[in-house]
Amino acid sequence: MFRNPLQLRLKKLSPQQLQLFMLVLCERMAINYGFFALNTEQKVNFDKFKQIMNLLWESLSVKNVQINFDGQLEKLELLIPQESDYSIYAVHPAIDACEALSEALHAKLTDDVLEHALSVSQISLKTVCDVYLAEHDIEITEAEANELEPIKDEWDNQWEIFRLILDTPFSASFVKELKEEVSQIKESQIGLFLS
Predict the structure, then answer these.
(1) What letters, b where the CB count within 10 A reaches 16 and e where it falls short, cover 33-50?
(2) For residue 82, what is the DSSP state?
(3) Which helix (H) or strand (E) covers residue 104, if one does?
(4) Interhelix angle for 15-39 vs 172-183, to 10°?
(5) Among 149, 186, 126, 162, which Cα is nearest to 7's?
(6) Paired residues of 193 in beta bridges
(7) Is the pLDDT assigned to residue 71 strictly greater than 70?
(8) pLDDT tens digits, residue range 26-63?
(9) Residue 145's pLDDT is what?
């Protein structure tokens, strides 16, 4: 696990703000899932993945909306690729994206939203680190991993997301604006693009 400089700061966010933090990170990771799905001719799975994401966004912007989060978890389980079925590296970030989305869904079913937000943060960092290690064919310690430039960049990105959410009063309109802004991002946290 990475040393998490956001851990204490995330405690300042309300449960709704923590949900928003997770969703922004999940949106960035969703590109990794989309890249995998489109390169393995599974666009329909990416569409289903995005539908689950959209329901989570809706849960934060539409008052009293009724969503069966257990049912969404079951749908997500069917979308998780089996690592052993694929020889392309993209399966790993795709699995991480599913794990992060699962954490965001589980956060809707529990009172411990902070724990799930920290997990999503760690999953995003793990994806960045794993890609770096695979590209450079090296093994390093946790302390060394925390000093890698891509990890520092990911911390900076997560910090910016945290600050924006902390400094902006929570409202349905803010959620919708942030969703729109995030949906315009076409590059994931590991540099994958969707055309």
Answers:
(1) bbbbbeebebeebbebbe
(2) P
(3) helix 91-107
(4) 20
(5) 162
(6) 187
(7) yes
(8) 999 999 999 999 999 999 999 999 999 999 999 999 99
(9) 85
